[in-house]
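We store chain and fold; example below:
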Amino acid sequence: MSNVNISDLSRVLFSYGPETVEQVISQQWTQMTDEACILSELCIARIKPDEPPEECQGAGQCAK
């Protein structure tokens, strides 16, 4: 799968170690979220009204 395009809303799990594929799917994949779309502002409607703003988000500059 070395030629898979990873796009803005893709969910990708890189796993290494002694786990079997079944263990990775049952333990790791099920814990993955899709909350990265909030930070990138691709699903801005999901941001809670009382959520504090992120320090760095969207296509703008990051201020530290």
Summary: Helices lie at 21-28, 36-39. Residues 19 and 27 are 10 Å apart (CA to CA).
